[in-house]
Amino acid sequence: MPPTATMPRSPGVGAVGASRGQAARTGSPFFRLALIFGALLVYLGYRATVPSSHKVLESAVSFTPSSATISRRVVAVADLHGDLQHAHNVLRMAGIIDASANWIGGDAVLASTGDIVDRGDDTIELYKMFDRLRQQALEHGGEVRNCLGNHEMMNALHDWRYVTPGDVKSFGGPQARRNVMSSSGWIGKAWMSNYTISQTVPLLSPHKVPPGVPSHYAVPHASFVHGGIHPEWAAKGLDHINEVGRSLLFRALDWKSPRGHLPPDTSREEMSLYDEMGPLWYRGYAYETEEEVCHLAHAAKESLGVRHLVMGHTPHFDGFVVRCDAAVLLIDTGISRAYGGEQSALIFDTELLPLAKGAWEERSTLTALYRGRRPKIIKEIRRVV
């Protein structure tokens, strides 16, 4: 709770006589200069505490070159695992939803690294929430980007080892749950339409880059995936990864007698995507040495054309794991009550603003948000373009 403000007292009878001397002092040039200097300090303090992406009114009335500044906020969340309340907590903390769980993120991008399902009872409400937020975000110029996790694919395959009894009951029984998670069910259709193995998100909107920016400039990007993209998969390209994932997902959802494992007609490449080196299960970025991880990350980033690799899957209950100077960000902190870890969100705040003589500066700040803790700046990037 903020400190209680002290209201100024109205002047009493004794203050009237003193007001004449006060008026004389306020008319002096020195006093007027002090007032101007004080006002400038207050304004600069305000500028320092308000992110540029929130200065909508100021930008609308400014006639200085700074009106050409563009900005974007990208919010990333990892494994929610069936916990609607903790999902709400995290998204409210990040400024994405209000108390009624409606979108208030404006033109921000919300990226989920998957594993919305399993370990908790709130599967139905969580997928409904993402469907609702996706539509609401579009109406305000924002986006919702969803990755498939290994647990989405497991449920499509009818591998229900981590499904809770309460979750099955919420669907009306095992067969009703399978019907919803099939190629003709509403969750199955949502997965096919709006969920991919990986998402590459521009940290600034490319179509908003002002015309005065040098032609060689390219906006930075971040890659989001559930497990991790090994360089061998990265070399195949994002479109190919998602195409193979979509093929496997449909095969699993459309299997009439699912057995909890890969269907008999699964292709060799689909099998490879679903194995321990594939992007749904790979944990190398979490477990390899720093030297090896940085080597892998450099190769993967080059192939994908991104600055950051963001992934969930491997929980670290004390907070994000940041490796290779923020090239690798492991953001699964065990949000769900099934784990009892940190309720967290990763924030990318990026802006491009004009400098003197036709130069531009790109500024990017990566911040870790943890419920009940102070925000922690992970990385600040400044570069002139």
From TrEMBL:
Gene3D superfamilies: 3.60.21.10. GO terms for molecular function: hydrolase activity. Residues 73-315 form the Calcineurin-like phosphoesterase domain. It comes from the Eukaryota. This is Metallo-dependent phosphatase. Keywords: Membrane, Transmembrane, Transmembrane helix. The chain crosses the membrane at residues 30-46. Pfam families: Metallophos. It comes from Ceraceosorus guamensis. The keyword Nucleotide-binding does not apply.
